[in-house]
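Onboarding guide, step 5: your first structure request.
Type a short instruction followed by the sequence, for example:

Predict the 3D structure of this protein.
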Amino acid sequence: HMGESLQKTGIIQNHPAFVSGASLFLMTIIAAVAYFNQIIELFFGIIILDFIVSVSIYFFFREKSPQLALWSGASRAIYTILLLVIVILNFNDWQNFDESFSLILGVFGLHLLIQAWIFWELKTLNYVMACLIFVSGIGYMFDSMLIIFEWTEISPIAEFTFLGEIVMIFWFLVVAFSRD
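The system replies with structure tokens like these:
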């Protein structure tokens, strides 16, 4: 009922952008709580939101770049399925979950590289978005490589490169409410 009233008043101008931005925002909060408190159960909520984002991102970008939109949505869906698998397999073992999670973030990094490519194709201000998201994707992929090759003497970098994701959340929300 609320969705109908929002649509009638014209507050939300782009529903896929709103769904993407709101879901990413909620996911960021839940992920922080889950990770810092080591609550694996909360990752089920993240999985649901991640799947919603994989679909909404496809719908948002499909007009401008159908092939990349499909790749982006599919790569995020694959990451989400892997996340579900590691949550189930490591439900009572935070240490194994944490290591597995770091490993699959490489797939998430691939998704972000595809997102960066889409933003690059959109041009203008989106070049900045593309660069920030590209750096985020590389950060996640680098951290996965640390796990794969057991490079324990090198520190993870994704905790410093995630700015592109935060900017993307707010970009989607601005687009959702913009009139043009």
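Each response can be followed by summary notes, for example: The mean pLDDT is 90.
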